[in-house]
Amino acid sequence: MTVVGTTQSAAQSDVQITATDTAVGGQFSQPVSVIVPSQIATPHPQPSQTVTGVNVAINACKSPVAAGIGTNDSLYTDYSIHMTITVWDQFGTPVGDLYAGAAVLEPYQSIYIPINQSLTSGSTYTDPFGPGYISVASLPQNDPRVAAWPSQPLGPFPITTQTPTTPVQVDGFPIGTISTRTWTSTSPNTVTVTWP
Amino acid sequence: MYRKLYKPFAIATLVFSWNLVFLSGKPGRTGALFSASGDDEVQVRQLLAEVGSKNGVTFTIEEALLKGGAMDHIRSSRHRTPPEGTGLKAVLDDLSQSVPNFTWYGDPNNPKIIHIVDDHLLRRQGYALDRVIDEIDFSGTVIELVDAIGSKGIPVSAGGPMGTDDLLSLDGVTRVQVKGKGLRVRDVLSDFVSLDGRGPILWTAETHVDGLDQTSYIRFRGASLRKPTPNR
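Predict the joint structure of the above. Result:
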């Protein structure tokens, strides 16, 4: 049996479900909670590591996602850290496997679109975060340079820092706006994430 | 691509037990994309998105790259949330006071465009966006437009350093037609692209100011979700 709540629980077990056995007239009631993805778990991960870089042809269907380049590919050297983000429910506990496979979404203009990552049964998703370098901004996917890109020399490692603002949803539920997370890249090939 | 937009739903299997039972829920309205959410400060990029949307204007942002410094130092600067009803000019003037190197002016050809320029780049000799193109007759995507400008010996690129979050908003599909003589690069990038349905940031340009690399890295942002209608 599949049941979907219509309103998220404000308190644990604040909804009652009653099942009736019409054959014998018996009833069974059970308190339940309607759980939604609601927040990013704390403490926030703040990794620092050496990154080797990898050449990837990115587009709207890849991760990291480039939603606005249509059916073409960008030739990108990815130096990001693939962070593991844990999602909690409105009560501050992992959402468990209820939303396993749910899409993680971020805004493209005013519409939320998939970043091509999904929630695991352990309430986590992978979030590529960090620097990279675009060598060719847009190429048709059948251009031979796309297929050859993974084995080409890496693009330069940028020495810089960035603090983006990223509202995030899981399965359509807002889990917060990330606006204090910073990546900083330093020589040689080190990326550090701070997230106060 | 835009026909495949994600439509949220949630289904879960209900498991009866004597322990607590958890159901999934259906998402409701999410409200404004950006909000201060109780904080007194927001990033400039959030503020610009809000005032741009409220006032029907679009911004271009030219930022200076200092060695090892932030590639988004204007956009990521934090600013107090202005009181409700604060006018556009008041917000921008306030940002000029509080955000280092923040200058702004209205586009001379289109009142719906406001240019934000890091003052490191003002009066910078040879600065790509101040260069004048003798003649241009172009039709193609905005990425190809940047390449076409670069092919005239002007140091611009649609590639270069870019963080993972910036990739999401990269626009590579908008088509544009540009024809004219004696046009400034900034005007070529701004005045021929339909603003209809676009996001609050038309493009950003990042330029090193402390090394040999004079290239301005130009990224168009937030392609229109509607069919284009030329604005010029």
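The CA atoms of residues 174 and 197 of chain B lie 11 Å apart.
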